């Protein structure tokens, strides 16, 4: 595969940005811990949005009546199996405007599309494949690799550089729906497009001062205008 000379690397979050699974992801994480440890973690007050799967599972293990520490292969396997069963029962719902935007971006070689998501890699690709969206993305940085989301940009940059032409420099932009996506971008000194299609209202996202804020990815012209403005 020839190396790309894209001027912008776009890194998309998944849940709440590209698609919606309702409570299936949360249920799978809690259920996997209960399957493996025969105890149910206290999670009623635990906000999972924007966290990585590794970070969520560590917190859930700490909330067990008899706390555990190990993120075992068995725990990951049970989580992936529960997600697979949930997807069999009901595929995720693509969010408004996503396919049209991805099609528009894919037709323009100046953009390289990737994922920066809290999801385990197998979970991420499984969700996207179920709705024909996986083929839009060339690579990803995933949430099973580190409990902190701010650790993922370095991995994303490394994987993007392997696809870009040697010596070519591109700007990186995160697209996400939570304050944690914004904080993640800031930690890497990248730009961020926030989209109010998840659990956070536009006003809550605006308070975190994203570089651009959209009500949904249906606002394709505004999305593209932001990218073009940052290129100059």
Question: Would you kindly provide a brief summary of this structure?
Answer:
41% of the residues lie in helices and 14% in strands.
Give short descriptive properties of this protein.
232 residues; alpha/beta; six-stranded parallel sheet; two-stranded antiparallel ribbon; 9 helices; 8 strands
Fold and architecture overview:
With 232 residues, the protein is α/β, with parallel strands linked by helices. Helix content is 41%, strand content 14%. It is built from 9 helices and 8 strands. The strands form 2 sheets. Strands 5-4-1-6-7-8 form a 6-stranded parallel β-sheet, sandwiched between helices. Strand 7, helix 8 and strand 8 form a beta-alpha-beta unit. Helix 1 crosses helix 3 and helix 3 packs parallel to helix 5. The longest helix is centred in the middle third of the chain and has 17 residues. It is globular and about 50 Å long. The two termini are 29 Å apart. The model has no long low-confidence stretch (mean pLDDT 96).
List the helices and strands and how they pair.
Blueprint: E1 8-12, E2 19-20, H1 24-37, H2 53-62, H3 73-89, E3 93-94, H4 98-106, E4 111-116, H5 121-130, E5 139-141, H6 152-161, E6 171-176, H7 179-187, E7 191-195, H8 202-206, E8 212-214, H9 220-231
Parallel strand pairs: 1-4, 1-6, 4-5, 6-7, 7-8
Antiparallel strand pairs: 2-3
